[in-house]
UniProtKB/TrEMBL annotation:
Protein name: Thymidine kinase
Cell location: Cytoplasm
Keyword Hydrolase in annotation: no
Organism superkingdom: Bacteria
EC number: 2.7.1.21
UniProt lineage: Bacteria, Candidatus Eiseniibacteriota
Length: 220
């Protein structure tokens, strides 16, 4: 469907998709900010977007764990990305894994229309399972950067986000407090039942810090 729809107009020159992926704390946001700032210095028209779900630190900025920040616009859906992206030369999206599956088509369209699209997101969820729609974006991208953090257990390069919240505990906003970077050998996947039975949307909500009872539990 997606690829058929694209057979109409020939893509414009210069469009490109860049994906920055990796676990939490690997510097994805830092790297996204670095690229977007350089585009701004070059006086390109830059729009910076993040899904509504990502509540960490600030309402209207993308913010890295080392407190770098760039003003951003919140989006609720891939349709918002399409509308806002059309007005820019460079479109940056942080936490792209929290957007709906339609983002794949939107990113392709924006790049086909000559834009530079830079997206950052988790490639794996806390179970160590690929986080849709990242695999789709990675396969279509021209450039891929896989960032690694430092394993908090052994100090080796970390590719996994370990959930460290106690079992049954409610996940709250500011959810990065409940995760730590781990390498392949120090990572412990949750019990089998939870790993495979859980709905992918529930996992996404948990990682975005939304508890069953609603959002902003921490501030309440
Ligand atoms: P991401 O967007 O991938 O979650 P950020 O760009 O927000 O990452 O933050 C990266 C920063 O996180 C690093 O520069 C460092 O200051 C901090 N940090 C905290 N814990 C770790 C860790 N275990 N490994 C690497 N960096 C860490
Ligand atoms: Zn380790």
């Amino acid at each position: 469907m997606l690829d058929e729809a694209r057979r109409g107009e020939p893509p414009r020159m210069g469009g490109v998709v860049e994906v920055i992926c990796g676990p939490m704390f690997s510097g994805k946001t830092e790297e996204l900010i670095r690229r977007l700032r350089r585009a701004q210095i070059a006086r390109q028209k830059v729009v910076v977007l993040k899904p509504f779900l990502d509540d960490r630190y600030a309402d209207d900025h993308i913010v890295s764990h080392n407190s770098q920040r760039v003003p951003s616009v919140r989006v609720e859906s891939s349709e918002d990305v399409r509308l806002l992206g059309m007005n820019a030369d460079v479109v940056g999206i942080d936490e792209v894994q929290f957007l709906d599956a339609g983002i794949v088509e939107v990113v392709e369209e924006l790049a086909d229309s000559g834009r530079r699209v830079i997206v950052a997101g988790l490639d794996l969820d806390y179970r160590g399972i690929p986080f849709e729609p990242m695999p789709q974006l990675l396969a279509r991208a021209e450039y891929i950067t896989k960032a690694l953090a430092i394993c908090v257990v052994c100090g080796h390069p970390a590719s996994r986000s370990q959930r460290v919240t106690g079992e049954g505990e409610r996940i709250v906003v500011g959810s990065t407090d409940h995760y730590e970077a781990r390498c392949r050998s120090c990572f412990r996947a949750p019990i089998e039942e939870e790993t495979h039975a859980k709905d992918a949307n529930v996992v996404a909500e948990e990682m975005a810090g939304i508890a069953e009872g609603g959002r902003r539990q921490q501030d309440a």
